Every structure is written in structure tokens, then in C-alpha cells.
User: Which sequence fits this backbone?
């Protein structure tokens, strides 16, 4: 087998297998809902969700049920206890925040110490004890926040399971429960409504599939050129890190979420957009406003636009906290901590510049229009790529 294909095969296992399995589950779920009117009813779609969870999680199903069940029982206990308090809203909010902190701590420490790899044997099968995957935990954080803040009422068991098991959101994008609840009435929409959108959705699916395939090819190319044992110079590695690497990641995941966005309407559900051409934006604020939007909006709403216990909000402190948590959400290790810290410092620099823009008026007048128009996008792109490329080098210097 040629080297590029070998590299591609190495990449496909294990994350590629997970993506292919998840995509297959979602495509089959969409086809079944379109083919059978009975399955387009809420009860039928609920059944499809449960089957999808069983197929997708397999030996991790016990951990999924234990993690999600514990969160729901916690919300139920808080809701019942709050009824007997003088200030039920405040009581519910405080305990919900405590629950979020416990869940986040379990997620971060569990990944750092590999609690999620713990398993037990039953019936000759090794079952995962906990499910601490990043998208599931983020979904659970959002519902704890929304129930605790009073934005939504505690959902029924049926609705909670339906939402948390929705196949199109298992690996992202994120659909908050409040967004899901608003769309419950459109489940099982009429065939005329689906047909009116079918051409647009097929086009979106084809575009997403093309993006995924292009991302896979670029990833395979990158692995074949700069894989283990390669003898590339630092300059060559730098060129790959600033050209092939970011685009392979963006095309793969941007296309993948586009596929989910095109499949979900078969159930009468609209998912929020995840990527909107983030490269080429003028600054880090615009980049993050268009990068993995359904997830980053959670960190923005829950951390950046809240005081986090401070009597007076400090925009720079909030920014660093947001991006450190974004890094830890990706992985509990030095690489992702540095990734978040670098983005946080860069964002703080941008905020300072935007607040002191008048000081740079003379410099801006010295640039002609075309120079100024491209300075921001180029600088932003180079900085974003640096946040992926530099952490390993920094860690080596530290060690």
C-alpha cells in the first residue's frame, strides 16, 4: 500500500471510525423518518433516538445512562427541594451552579486521570463506567444552567432523554434544550413542508460531504508528509502548520457539522450553524464569532457575559477564564491549556486595541486602503495557526 494511503488508514482509526459510525447512524435515522410516517411522530423519533444511542455508544452505554441519569436526578431533587424554600429561584440557581462545578471538575479530572477509561465486566462484556465525552458534558452543563436560571422548567423524562439522545448532536453541533423545546411542535412536519426544503438540504448535504472528503484527503496528505519518522526541516513543518493543517481540520469538521445540519430537518429539527467561513476574518473576535459557533456561544454567554462572582466584571479576566475553559474542554493537558491561554492573551490584546483605537490613528493613516484591508485578516490567520503550532514547542522548552 502506498505511503499516503497507509497514513490515511492510520488516521481513520480510531477517530475516523467514530465519525463514520456516527454519520451512518444519522443517515439511517433520517431515511427511516422520511420513509415511515409512524416514525415521524414524537414517539417514533424518540424510539429512533434510543436505538441510535445504543448503536453509537455500545459498550459505553452504561456510562452514558449513569452520567445523564445522575444529572437528571440531581435536577429533579433540586426542583423538589426548592418548592419548600422561601426563595426557590435563588436556591435552585445556587445548587445548579454547584452541580455545574462538580460536573466540570469530574470532566476535567476524569480526563486527566482517565476515569472515563474505567470499566467493569458483565456478561462477558467490558462496560465503560462513565461517559465524559466533551459534547455530552457541554450539553449537560447547558441544561443545568437553563433549569437553574429559570430559563426553562425541568423537562419530563421523555423530553430529557429525547434531547440528550438526539443522534444529530452526539458529536456536535450543540442544540440547547431551550432551542429543542421550541421546535417540539414541528416534529413530524408534513410531507409538503419537507419537500419544499428537500432541494436545499440535498445541496447542503452534498456540499458538506465534499468538504469532509476534502478534509480527509488533506489530513491524509499531512500525515504522509509530516507523520512519525519524517525528516522535515523546521521551515517545512512550519509551512505545513500554516497551510495544510488548519484547512484540513476546518474542512473536515465544518463539513461534518454541515452534514448534521442537513440531516436534522428530516425530523423537523433545525440545528444552529457551527462554522461560517472563519478564516479571513479581520480579528480574533470575528474569528471566534464564526468558529464552532454553537459551542463557543455557550462559553461566551455563561462566562464572558457574567461576572463570575466578581462585584465588578473585568473583561480581561473573563476573557482568560473563557479561553482556558475552552482549552480544558478540548483536553486536560498542557497543549490545550497553552492553546486556550494563547487565544485568551491574543483576545485580550485585541480588546485593549479596540478600546484604544484612537492611539493608532496615525499608524492607520500611514497605510493605504488595500494594505489596511488585508493586514487584519493575515495577522489573525497567522496568530490562529500559531496557537495550534507553538504549544508543543513551548512545552519542550519548559521541560
Assistant:
Amino acid at each position: 500500500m502506498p505511503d499516503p494511503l497507509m497514513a490515511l488508514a492510520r488516521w481513520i482509526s480510531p477517530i475516523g471510525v467514530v465519525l463514520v459510525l456516527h454519520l451512518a447512524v444519522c443517515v439511517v435515522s433520517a431515511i427511516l423518518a422520511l420513509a415511515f410516517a409512524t416514525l415521524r411522530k414524537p414517539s417514533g423519533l424518540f424510539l429512533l433516538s434510543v436505538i441510535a444511542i445504543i448503536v453509537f455508544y455500545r459498550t459505553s452505554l452504561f456510562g452514558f445512562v449513569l452520567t445523564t441519569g445522575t444529572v437528571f436526578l440531581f435536577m429533579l431533587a433540586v426542583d423538589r427541594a426548592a418548592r419548600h424554600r422561601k426563595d426557590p429561584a435563588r436556591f435552585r440557581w445556587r445548587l445548579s451552579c454547584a452541580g455545574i462545578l462538580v460536573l466540570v471538575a469530574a470532566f476535567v479530572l476524569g480526563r486527566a486521570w482517565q476515569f472515563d477509561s474505567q470499566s467493569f465486566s458483565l456478561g462477558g462484556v467490558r462496560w465503560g463506567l462513565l461517559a465524559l465525552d466533551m459534547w455530552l458534558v457541554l450539553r449537560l452543563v447547558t441544561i443545568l444552567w437553563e433549569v437553574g436560571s429559570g430559563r426553562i422548567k425541568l423537562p419530563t423524562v421523555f423530553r430529557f432523554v429525547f434531547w440528550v439522545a438526539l443522534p444529530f448532536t452526539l458529536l456536535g453541533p450543540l442544540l440547547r434544550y431551550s432551542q429543542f423545546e421550541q421546535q417540539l411542535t414541528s416534529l413530524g412536519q408534513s410531507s409538503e413542508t419537507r419537500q419544499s426544503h428537500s432541494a436545499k438540504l440535498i445541496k447542503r448535504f452534498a456540499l458538506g460531504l465534499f468538504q469532509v472528503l476534502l478534509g480527509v484527503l488533506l489530513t491524509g496528505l499531512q500525515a504522509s508528509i509530516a507523520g512519525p519518522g519524517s525528516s522535515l526541516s523546521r521551515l517545512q513543518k512550519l509551512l505545513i502548520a500554516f497551510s495544510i493543517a488548519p484547512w484540513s481540520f476546518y474542512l473536515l469538521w465544518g463539513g461534518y457539522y454541515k452534514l448534521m445540519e442537513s440531516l436534522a430537518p428530516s425530523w423537523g429539527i433545525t440545528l444552529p450553524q457551527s462554522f461560517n467561513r472563519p478564516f479571513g476574518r479581520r480579528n480574533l473576535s470575528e474569528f471566534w464569532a464564526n468558529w464552532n459557533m454553537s459551542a463557543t456561544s455557550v462559553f461566551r454567554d455563561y462566562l464572558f457575559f457574567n461576572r463570575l462572582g466578581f462585584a465588578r466584571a473585568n473583561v480581561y479576566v473573563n476573557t482568560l477564564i473563557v479561553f482556558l475553559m475552552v482549552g480544558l474542554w478540548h483536553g486536560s493537558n498542557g497543549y490545550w491549556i497553552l492553546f486556550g491561554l494563547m487565544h485568551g492573551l491574543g483576545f485580550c490584546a485585541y480588546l485593549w486595541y479596540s478600546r484604544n483605537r484612537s492611539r493608532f490613528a496615525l499608524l492607520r493613516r500611514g497605510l493605504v486602503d488595500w494594505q489596511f484591508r488585508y493586514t487584519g485578516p493575515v495577522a489573525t490567520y497567522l496568530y490562529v495557526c500559531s496557537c495550534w503550532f507553538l504549544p508543543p514547542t513551548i512545552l519542550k522548552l519548559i521541560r
